[in-house]
Amino acid sequence: MLKTDGNMKEKVSLITSMVIFGTIGIFVNYIGLPSGVIASCRGITGAVVILAVMLITGRKIDFKAVKKKLPVLLASGAAIGFNWILLFEAYRFTGIPVATVCYYTAPIIVVIVSSFIFKERLKAKHIICVFVALIGVALVSGVFQSDSSKITGVLCSLGAAALYASV
């Protein structure tokens, strides 16, 4: 019999969310709708599921807290929505692997921007890692090729990464 610890539920949740996130590109490529429509449907579906879970579990929306944080909530919601649109467009222009690699520059963006916003001092090893990662992304992405659609896809995925990092 398989021995499980108390974190099994969390592990299953993490694996499930990663499978869902990791396969979204495959579905987007086979759906013949514009990226904005797909992103809107994704947002609406997510909102409906969250509201259903809240109803089932008896949780209430704290409208006072929502009102207090409304500008931040609207800005982050818009950033996520446009992030999805740009990412889905990147899949179409450059393919899932390249778009995904470029999209995962979001942590690099966070490291760079945090040094300015939070006045965090970047150590030499951080700068070297950022530099090597950016060179790797540039080499893998194919931006040095003359294919303008591939460059458009790379720019879309980097834009999506910047929006994701902003959230």
Q: Structural class from helices and strands?
A: mainly alpha
Helix share bin: over 70%
Shape: globular
Strand-residue proportion:
under 5%
Number of strands: 0
Calculate the terminal CA-CA distance, rounded to whole Å: 42 Å
The radius of gyration over CA amounts to 19 Å
User: How many structurally independent domains?
Assistant: 1
Low-pLDDT runs of 5+ residues are none
Helical segment tally? 8
- The whole-number mean of residue pLDDT values reads 89
SSE arrangement, N to C: HHHHHHHH
Give a quick account of the main beta sheet: strands, pairing sense, barrel closure. Answer: none
Topology overview:
Layout: H1 8-30, H2 35-57, H3 63-68, H4 70-94, H5 96-103, H6 106-117, H7 124-141, H8 148-166
Helix pairs in contact: 2-4, 4-5, 4-8, 5-7, 5-8, 6-8
Provide an overview of this structure.
It is a single chain. The chain has one domain. Helix content is 80%, strand content 0%. The protein contains 8 helices and no strands. The protein starts with 7 loop residues before the first helix and ends with a helix.
Question: What's this entry about, in short?
Answer:
The chain is an all-alpha fold.
State the main characteristics.
80% helix; 8 helices; mainly alpha; 167 residues
